[in-house]
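re: ur question from yesterday

yeah so i grabbed the chain u mentioned. its 127 aa long if i counted rite. heres the sequnce exactly as i have it in my notes:
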Amino acid sequence: MIRRHELSDAEWEFVRPLLPESLRGRKRLDDRTVLNGIVWKFRTGVAWRDVPERYGPWATRPTRFRRWAKDGTFERMLRAARAQADAAGDIDRLVSVDSTVVRAHQHAAGARKGGSAAPRSDAPEVA
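ran it thru and got these structure tokens back, copy pasting raw so excuse formatting
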């Protein structure tokens, strides 16, 4: 049964080959379980500790999230998803040229470069 905020079987089959393989250390929690916990956390906006226990120990999710973010796993997933969507024609490219004119404030006009202003010609002489 696929729960709300979890990866479907098709989504899992898409990302599974993009995940790094861990060949050392003790047996670790299934990547799909952890990834579903990470997805659940970001879709709901809760703290890591508030993600349901069915996604494994709370400390596993942020640890694996940081590791995958650091080694480029999520970047590979995004690139692969973009490539697949582009190949299927699901990406619309829109180019916009902005011709907005930005005006300077009236006090910004006419100042000398270097920060010192020239004396005004209508200013009275000070003796």
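noticed a couple things. The radius of gyration is 28 Å. also Helices lie at 9-15, 31-44, 60-70, 73-87.
anyway ttyl
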